[in-house]
Write a structure and sequence with these properties.
single chain; alpha+beta; 4 domains; seven-stranded mixed beta sheet; 20 strands; globular
Length: 342
């Protein structure tokens, strides 16, 4: 999986070393920090199959574990002090009188009055609207990293959207595809929900991905445990390494363990992961992310199988990886992806 990803990136940028690739790869970082069971299992196997890379791997691990970033926050009292200084100029008090001279007094007061009118207008405008809903939306080909108010991390794939009420930031609505690292709150055991048109994911703190495309909702659990509340009223509990998909239209549920023999298509933090997946299904994922249509010039290519990791943050690299792994040629023309035999 990752070996194909690494080869593709190396081919696209010859100046990029294996060490640089590893320390910037989310899956590798999870292995180094022992944070994700699926990633830990994968990298153990990869290292065993690539003994010549062992020195580079452990150098990269040392770098990952040795770098710590401390977020800088502005103290609330400093913010309040600066705000009071500004307000004191608008509404003078006993300790900070405003003393305009004759030449500037009229202009000064007019400027302050105009500012107050603008502020009041701005507040009234947005108070009249439903401003309690927060929405994050990506366009085709865009991937963004989000940090929710509770500390939960979300990676939002292209052509996707999440929204939540400011009063309930742990109750998320999703359209499209996203990967979640939910922040646990042990003191209150606060739950976290992801809602789609088909089901609700109920969780306390874990890592998982949700995909609402292809007329159903698919959930992959990487770490922890979650419970799904399906649209038909039933529930499903999941353990790491399992996949569940459900459509409220046909009420069909599939619940499977991820294995090397299972045919599946997944998305995780900027990377497509395919296992024995047809090129037709592979290209459907690309269509959703980039808003393009696929046209198979050679129809027999649809059923060709693909396994491995494909980077999804750059269309050119993504298509190049698919071409190299399938022996095909893909041409972008008029928002279409034309696929030929190579």
């Amino acid at each position: 999986m990752v070996s194909l990803l690494l080869k593709t990136i190396l081919m696209s940028n010859k100046n990029l070393s294996l060490l640089e690739i590893l320390i910037n790869d989310a899956s590798f970082v999870n292995w180094a920090k022992n944070q994700n069971q699926n990633d830990v299992a994968f990298w153990k196997k990869w290292i065993a199959e690539h003994p010549d890379k062992i020195d580079t791997v452990y150098n990269a691990k040392a770098i990952v574990l040795g770098i710590q970033f401390n977020p800088v926050q502005i103290p609330e009292n400093k913010i309040n002090r600066e705000l009071n200084d500004i307000l004191a100029q608008i509404e003078p008090g006993e300790t900070a009188p405003l003393k305009p001279n004759k030449k500037t007094s009229i202009l000064t007061y007019l400027g302050i009055a105009a500012a107050v009118v603008l502020i009041v207008t701005f507040v009234n405008r947005f108070s009249a609207e439903d401003s309690t809903i927060v929405t994050h939306k990506t366009v085709y080909g865009e991937i963004i990293d989000l940090k929710l108010p509770d500390g939960t991390s979300v990676v939002l794939n292209g052509n996707s959207e999440i929204s939540y009420d400011k009063s309930a930031p742990r109750n998320i609505n999703l359209k499209g595809e996203a990967y979640f690292k939910v922040k646990a709150i042990p003191s209150t055991q606060a739950k976290f929900w992801v809602n789609t048109k088909d089901l609700k994911v109920e969780v306390y703190g874990t890592q998982f991905s949700v995909n609402t495309r292809n007329e159903k909702t698919g959930v992959l659990l990487d770490e922890g445990s979650i419970q799904l509340l399906l649209g038909n009223g039933s529930t499903r509990k999941m353990i790491p390494g399992e996949m569940v998909s459900y459509s409220d239209d046909d009420k069909e549920v599939t619940h499977k363990k991820v294995t090397q023999d299972l045919s599946y298509s997944l998305w995780r933090e900027g990377t497509y992961v395919f296992n024995n997946t047809s090129v037709y299904e592979v290209m459907r994922n690309v269509e959703h992310a980039y808003g393009l249509k696929t046209e198979f010039i050679d129809e027999e290519l649809k059923n060709q199988k693909l396994s491995g990791g494909i980077p999804n943050q750059n269309l050119k690299i993504c298509l190049s990886a698919i071409e190299k792994s399938t022996g095909t040629r893909i041409v972008v023309k008029d928002k279409r992806l034309l696929i030929f035999k190579n």
